[in-house]
Amino acid sequence: MARISAASVVVVGSLNVDHIASVKSLPTAGETVSATSLEKRFGGKGANQALAAARHGAQVTLIGCLGDDPDGRDYRNHLRREGINCSAVNTVKGGTGSAFIAVDAKGENQIIVIPGANAALTAPSLKMQRSRIEVAKALLVQLEVPLDTVIEAIKLANGREVPVVLNPSPAQADFPWGEVTINVLIVNNGEARQIFGADADDIADELDAWKQRLKEKGVRTLVVTRGEKSTLVLTDSGLKKVATHKVKPIDTVGAGDTFAGAFTTHLAEGSPLLECVRWANTAGALATLKVGAQEGIPHRGDVQSALSA
């Protein structure tokens, strides 16, 4: 059994129901193609990361919105079964957020996202959850809900010195960098390039410049995931590299969300930074061994076993 953490983690983010069609080839403009199968799965970065933290043993409260449709009801029941506190997940009139995904034989995809109820997670509604954020051991946020809402959550956490972990995906050009404090920014190589205008692989050769970039953006710690390559951890004291856990991946969808949830759990517990990354690297790797964003998310005991092997 996984050890239950005393750490309280609040996740503000999206909940989507994914409809995944398998096709031989992706359609071109105006073309109709037949699917060989259609699957329906729970997704959305907010819920994925909340689930990862919960399976890692944290006491998780998810703040988000679901529609008053059957998908919303089913999703709420799913999260409750996983032990996630859903009392701050509001039910709003209309449809639950959804994504329609076509995947071809080569693994390439086309995705259409309908925000649905996620758009109803407004800054004023977020303020009503102030007390939950202010007593948390860590706040975890992404960018699949309205940006104003994310900024409000971060400001509430900053006001009470609650550590903020931001996974800025999908990247948004109008994020007000420098106006809020980000304790830990988790990005992949592409996101790092979009945000900082430089290649993260060059951090070691441009250490002072990268430290200055972090300072200007209001970021205290930068964590850069790089697939199979070691994860980069940059703080004001320098650059560290943490080796990844080697596996033969089957499906990488959800690996980044698993990393973020596992990392934030250990951060909330007070673990040393590099230890947080070591656990997150292993959790993210294990998540690639099953198909589906949530289906592959490992429990803490599985990660512990992998680390001890």
TrEMBL record:
Sites binding K(+) sit at 251, 253, 287, 290, 292
Xref: CDD domains: ribokinase
Q: What is its main location?
A: cytoplasm
- Organism's domain of life? Bacteria
Sorted UniProt keywords: ATP-binding, Carbohydrate metabolism, Cytoplasm, Kinase, Magnesium, Metal-binding, Nucleotide-binding, Potassium, Transferase
Q: How is its activity regulated?
A: Activated by a monovalent cation that binds near, but not in, the active site. The most likely occupant of the site in vivo is potassium. Ion binding induces a conformational change that may alter substrate affinity.
Give the record's GO CC terms: cytosol
Q: Where is the Carbohydrate kinase PfkB domain?
A: 7-299
Active-site feature positions: 257 (proton acceptor)
Recorded hits in Pfam families, A to Z, give:
PfkB
Question: In Gene Ontology terms, what is one molecular function of this protein?
Answer: ATP binding
The EC number on file is: 2.7.1.15
Question: What is its pathway?
Answer: Carbohydrate metabolism; D-ribose degradation; D-ribose 5-phosphate from beta-D-ribopyranose: step 2/2
Q: Where does ATP bind?
A: 188, 256-257, 281
Query: Among the record's GO biological process terms, what is one?
Result: D-ribose catabolic process
Q: Which residues bind substrate?
A: 16-18, 44-48, 144, 257
What enzyme category does the UniProt record give? transferase
Q: How does it assemble?
A: Homodimer.
**Family per similarity comment:** Belongs to the carbohydrate kinase pfkB family.
Q: What is this protein called?
A: Ribokinase
Organism for this UniProt entry: Prosthecobacter debontii
Gene name?
rbsK
